[in-house]
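Quick note —
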Amino acid sequence: MPSYQEALDLFHEWTQTESLRKHAYAVEAGMQFYAQQGGEDEELWRMTGLLHDMDYEKHPTPEEHPFVGIDVLRGLGYPEIMLEAILGHATYSGVARTTPLAKTLFAVDELAGFITAVAYVRPDGLTGMKPKSVKKKLKDKRFAAAVSREDIQVGIEELGIDLDTHIANVIAGMQQQAERLGF
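Predicted structure written out below.
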């Protein structure tokens, strides 16, 4: 398997926009937190979060994303468990989420984006953020309207975790990487 630095270099080669880079870093941070909590392969989980949208900037359509990226990653020797997780995060791919890695990526992806949006409207960003404030914003369908509340719900059901705990976990992961995320 390629190293984390090789994955980061590849990601930067494919992804130029700061907002998409920060989204990937946020998902990576959430994945790292869950890997630490579950005794999983931290590097694998981090790279899965980092690379899950690597092709999105150049290939944003459902016909291409994440399939173009998967072909590149497969050619570079990334493990199938990672590729299956990345495919599974795209609900339209037809790939079921059967592994903890795949279920966690799906659960973290939308929520990390939502937490980022909440952090942008808070004076202290991620500092002191609690699940209660995130849940309040989730109820406002106009706030971060592009974030699928349904996907967040499906994600927590697949993980077998309650919403408050999942929100707290993703916040904690993102707080560990607050500087990298610009907060």
